[in-house]
Amino acid sequence: MEHVRSRFPALARGAAFLDGPGGSQAPEEVIEAIAGHLRRGTANDGGVFATSRETIELIAAARRAGGALTGSAPEEIAFGANMTTLNFLLAHAVARTLAPGDEIVVTELDHDANVAPWLRVAEDHGLVVRTAPVRAEDATLDVDALEGLLGDRTRVVAFTLASNAVGSLTDARRIAEAAHAAGALAWGDAVHYAPHRRPDRAALGLDVLLCSPYKFFGPHLGVAAIRRNLAESWPADRVRPASETPAGHRFETGTPSFEALAGTVAAIDYIAGLGGGDLDAAYARIREHEESLSRDVLERLTAIDGVTLHGVDDPAARTPTFCFTVDGTSPRAVAEQLAERDVFVWDGNYYALSLMEALGLEEHGGAVRAGFLHYNTAAEAARLCDAVEEIAAAGRRGARSPRRDEAPA
Ligand SMILES: Cc1ncc(COP(=O)(O)O)c(C=O)c1O
């Protein structure tokens, strides 16, 4: 733990960084890779001189690293500004191959970045969007209900591998199999999944997988892994004469952030290093540590009077991302009081709009979200729970003593 934390200079600020689901901190090797690329001399790709050749090598290395992480070939990787931008672009591309009346299945558990693109293209192309519900009692996806929505017009099943709001994992293999049995594509959002579990497109049986390196210790960037024959067949917006570009790269437009590619290679190397160079071993270690944090947080948070946890209470069925509300204190006020104690958390809906609506939280300011990553400690879990205990106790005292202007005459 000490070694891991020493790699992340931002952690020296002393705050409890529980804002990981919104974006992780970066280790020295990532920061150095980004700076190193610029320091050594950057250049656009395609030239015959040294710095341009180095950029060409860097792009190839980034595709290899993205491919290794996602169980995909380097040609199946597309980099973009972020997941949302890539998903809009890919949804537009696949929609051009669909016919009016074709159906897309989305879920209530998803971040809107995997819902809004489908609503947009449905409007453009006369497609039908069906929404799979969550079970309100534990904020997990109702996969039986999702399967019930599949039919012979279903073309895409777009779902999240893990909820960025409540941490629930989904059974990606089962959903992918059901999608394929209906003749549809399995389209997975792995943005929240990737810092916690290996986003292995091939092993999960997905056709398209999207993730964002800035959530897994890298720089701000998006990655799509797209099954080769699909990437080759969809229409892509290309400038001339780049129209011959192979597979996934066809969905990359313009000049990318080469320094972000350098940082992404370093981030994936960093993760692999946690498992002695083996990504699966690294993720197994991450998971073990995170499940232990989850056990601590679940045990304490759920025992606090006036605190409601929105999410599943089995550490193995979730990421260590906790969504909760405190009776009598708004999510914003709880986040502010935690911020005063240097505990960094989010409040609101975190763009998991349908989920917050389904849980009845949206109209009350959403909820508080405390998200742990492998660099967080048991001491930080205790720090969060101690602080929430104090805030909840103060809320209870406030509820018992009416304000002067509310007191009976
Ligand atoms: C689950 C999930 N999907 C998609 C996104 C959007 O990713 P990006 O910021 O790379 O567009 C986020 C961002 O928070 C997310 O948590």
Structure notes:
The chain has 409 residues and is an alpha/beta fold. The protein has 2 domains: 2-18 and 280-391, Aspartate Aminotransferase, domain 1, CATH 3.90.1150.10; 28-273, Aspartate Aminotransferase, domain 2. Helix content is 41%, strand content 15%. It contains 14 helices and 15 strands. The protein has helices at 2-6, 28-40, 50-70, 83-95, 116-125, 143-149, 172-181, 201-204, 228-233, 258-273, 279-301, 331-340, 353-358, 378-400; strands spanning 16-17, 77-80, 103-107, 128-132, 134-135, 140-141, 154-160, 185-189, 208-211, 222-226, 307-309, 321-326, 343-344, 346-348, 367-371. Strands 2-10-9-8-7-3-4 form a 7-stranded mixed sheet, with helices on both faces. A hairpin with a 4-residue loop joins strand 5 and strand 6 (140-141). Helix 2 (28-40) packs antiparallel against helix 10 (258-273) and helix 10 (258-273) crosses helix 11. The protein binds pyridoxal-5'-phosphate. The site of pyridoxal-5'-phosphate has 13 residues, from helix 4.
- The chain-level structural class is alpha/beta
Number of beta-strand segments: 15
**Termini distance?**
59 Å
Bound ligand species: pyridoxal-5'-phosphate
N-to-C order of helices and strands: HEHHEHEHEEEHEHEHEEHHHEEHEEHEH
Strand portion = 5-15%
Our count of helices gives 14
Count of discrete structural domains: 2
- Full CATH superfamily name of the largest domain: Type I PLP-dependent aspartate aminotransferase-like (Major domain)
**Main sheet: strands, sense, barrel:** 7 strands, mixed
Estimated radius of gyration: 22 Å
What is the helix content?
40-55%
CATH architecture field of the largest domain? 3-Layer(aba) Sandwich
Q: What low-confidence regions span 5 or more consecutive residues with pLDDT below 50?
A: 404-409
What gross morphology would you assign? globular
Mean pLDDT: 95
Task: Please identify the top-level CATH class of the largest domain.
Answer: Alpha Beta
Find the CATH topology of the largest domain: Aspartate Aminotransferase, domain 2
